[in-house]
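Holo model, glutamic acid. Inputs:
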Amino acid sequence: MRSCPVISRFAPSPSGPLHVGHLLAALQARRLADAHGGRCLLRVEDIDARAQQPAMLELMYEDLAWLGLQFDGEVLVQSRRFAVYGAVLDKLRALGVLYPCFCTRTEIKAQLAEMGRAPHATLGYQYPGTCRHLSAAEAEERMAAGAPHAWRLNMQRVQDIIGCPQWHDLLRGTQRCVPSVFGDVVLARKEFPASYHLCVVVDDAEQGVTHVTRGEDLFDATHIHRAIQGVLGLPVPTYCHHGLLRDNEGKRLAKRDGARSLASLRAAGYTPQMVMESLQVALRNSGIWNI
Ligand code: GLU
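Output:
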């Protein structure tokens, strides 16, 4: 553990009611900060329309208050920061690591099927790089004609710039960052001018986050985040990807599993103490209690 003050964060996307998996992440972030006399921040990751439902945000605050989970400082709301993310995209464009991509989702799936490639387990379909080969003149022409496009990170260029940096996971040890295996990810879309990968990196740096705690479903994404930090020269937090909550058959509890939402547990008569105690047991069982 570093000796600088710990700053952790809980960063939910309120696209539905908070469920027990969210709370495990929240409790882990809070606990890590408390154990080291640090601060735990709250960030609302609401860059897409699904996560911009005022009723869900209200419910989230209610749930957190009911549980007695408190956060430090001001809440950062991503949907208010598109100008900040836009400026970072400009910087990345100037560095020559972004290119416009005009492919539709259906086209990408067809291209991948033709190549016999299956989707990646946690990061979904990996773009085969079709538009990376467009000439600058052609790309300009299509954009000038108003063709809808996303902005993708050219991972090969990124790799050339950053070399082979590392990042550290408290549970899995030091990792070598190999971003190119994850394909050229989207950093901005026409309808949503910034993506999760971009915003999370920018905000973790801006908020001075020293420890990123989150579920292991985001472990692979950390390679991408480390790569973006490298290109932008941002500090690299320590990571901790905790195990996910599973049901009795070992199946991951999905957010859509409404039966495990905090609101439904409240309605079923669970007390905040009961919920907190079972989360603490889950954290202990996942081996991260003592770090
Ligand atoms: N917003 C993400 C989620 O709710 C978490 C992102 C992160 O912790 O980096 O799943």
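The beta strands are 7-10, 39-44, 76-77, 98-101, 150-153, 166-169, 173-176, 186-188, 211-215, 238-242. The mean pLDDT is 89.
Archived with the compound record.
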